[in-house]
Amino acid sequence: MKNIKIAPSILSADFSKMGQEVADITANGADYIHLDVMDGNFVPNFSFGQKLIKEIRPYSKAVFDTHLMILNPWKYIEEFAKAGSDIITIHKEACGERLLDTVKAVKSLGVKAGVVINPDTPVDAIKDVIDEIDLLLLMSVFPGFGGQKFIEYVLPKIEQASALIKSTGRNIDLEVDGGITLENVKAVKDAGANVIVAGSTVFNCPDRAKVIKELREI
Ligand code: DX5
Ligand code: ZN
Asked: Is 146 in the pocket of ligand 1 (CB under 6 A)?
């Protein structure tokens, strides 16, 4: 099994002191910092943009894992790369036929490229780009808000995605995002995920080091 990486989502952090929040979760064991960017169009909510990412970048050496929940992502990838993203992940549902070109554009910026699909999009929808990507993200909630309930029917999709990744022989992260708790994290890992996003589970816990360690080791 690949090493498990924990990616706290700062959507559930205290926005009034985001630099400190990011430093704190890094010191407490976060491998990736999951950055949920929302545009009020692709999803029915706003979060933050490239300016916040740029300003918190000096507070952490962890991998900056930018999840773009925005329309027309190709217009903005350069700014998110410049802000300090290590990985930029774009939605199949926002790119349609432009997915492969946008993945290539992300890579040309010297950043790792991820692709993400919603719970109701089949794994088959990203088959054409699997040979180009560094990370595949499966949503286990419909994107837009933290603190939602994990959708169980995503578990077989994780197994399917894991098999697809194995068939490439390449080292591609399989990340799962939404509603992950200490109760369901084992099932997510057993299905084949190696990057675990957790927003409310990490930030609502007073002992962040403990919860990050448990998410990794359970
Ligand atoms: C949902 C976001 C997730 C979410 C995770 O739109 O992409 O990253 O904030 O938060 P929890 O872990 O609370 O579901
Ligand atoms: Zn996310």
From this structure: yes
Backbone angles phi, psi at 147, to 5 degrees: 75, 20
User: CA–CA separation, 71 vs 39, rounded Å?
Assistant: 8
Cα 119 to ligand 1 centre (Å): 13
| pLDDT exceeds cutoff 70 at 1 | no
pTM: 0.98
Contact partners, residue 28, CB within 8 Å, separation at least 6: 208, 209, 212
- The mean pLDDT of 182-200, rounded to a whole number, is 98
Please identify which residue in the block is written with the tokens 């007073």.
206
- Distance (Å) from CA 215 to ligand 2 centroid: 17
Active site residues: 36, 177
User: Could you report the per-residue pLDDT of 42-86, keeping only the tens digit for each?
Assistant: 999 999 999 999 999 999 999 999 999 999 999 999 999 999 999
What mean pLDDT is reported for the chain? 98
Q: Domains in the chain, start-ordered, CATH in brackets?
A: 5-217 (3.20.20.70)
Mutate to test the pocket of ligand 1, among 6, 9, 10 (most ligand atoms within 8 A of CB): 9
